[in-house]
Amino acid sequence: xxxxxxxxxxxxxxxxxxxxxxxxxxxxxxxxxxxxxxxxxxxxxxxxxxxxxxxxxxxxxxxxxxxxxxx
Length: 71
Prior knowledge:
The protein is mainly alpha-helical and 71 residues long.
């Protein structure tokens, strides 16, 4: 799965909106929207921030991280 698909998949499994995810990552709603629509890709720093967020919510039992994010 590509990054756009992973971002959307994680967001939907968490049951949150693009705005909610953006707030959690300290980025704009438009950025999440562009990622999910494949208009842009996350920078290395933003992707790292997303992976860390996924690991944090996974540790809280709210999400099973996709294997691509684990490592």
